[in-house]
Amino acid sequence: PPLHKQRHQFVVDFVKRNKPKKVVDLGCGECTLLKMLKFHHEIELLVGVDVNGAKVKKRMHGLAPISTDYLEPSYDQLCVELYQGSVTQKDTRFKGFDLVTSIELIEHLTPADVELFSEVVFGYMTPKMVIISTPNSEFNIFMPGVSCYRHSDHKFEWTRAEFRSWAMKVCLDYGYEVEFTGVGKAPQGQQEAVGFCTQIGVFYQLGGRDCCKTLLVNDAEDLFPYTLLYKVNY
Ligand code: SAM
Predict the structure, then answer these.
(1) Which of 65, 87, 163, 168 has a 20 to 30 A CA-CA distance from 234?
(2) What's the gap in Å between 87 CA and the centre of ligand 1?
(3) What are the tens digits of pLDDT across the range 151-184?
(4) Are 63 and 35 in contact (CB under 8 A)?
(5) Residue with CA at minimum distance from ligand 1 atom 23
């Protein structure tokens, strides 16, 4: 299957194993991943946010219940919410999630915005689990026609070492541990040397202690900068 499908399937398989109840997809784009996730009955709250509201609106109606959902209700309860907003801003409604996904998003942010993203996601939203995917630049030698970046809007593409060092710092700062994996395998015999086409970090919040940086980030004030575009209850 194409790589974008493999990335989304990775999340779906993770959801099947870990059964999060509240899931938010950051940079949800045309809601492709959310549409796959709505079939997973453990999920009670499914939220998407993207800075590009027009992109979200284009296909969001695919998240509406179809008539069979009412005739044979297979959902215990499901609420879907879509927002326009930037992952560099804190919004109180995004706290308390079990799983946050960020698929091919961070490479579109400037380094300063990546810092804000880390603080917002790991320091403010403080979800139990986080899945982050981003291109592995070491793999680009296998991509014909890619001289610099895979996409003109990418602000950077990281090697495995660069992704690892960002991820380790996040873990230290905000009290998480991380496992590295990926999708899209290199040709036979070269997997070790270059790694996966898409690199993925799966982060787990360390239990039982609030990290000092998390406490600093968490001011008591409620914040609502995101705009609600769509909401449906099954
Ligand atoms: N996650 C989707 C997927 O896997 O197909 C879309 C990936 S697309 C390459 C990157 C998305 O991130 C775009 O929809 C873009 O509008 C969004 N994006 C870029 N900067 C953002 C920001 N600061 N806050 C929220 N979304 C952002």
Answers:
(1) 87
(2) 9
(3) 989 999 999 999 999 999 999 999 999 999 999 9
(4) yes
(5) 86
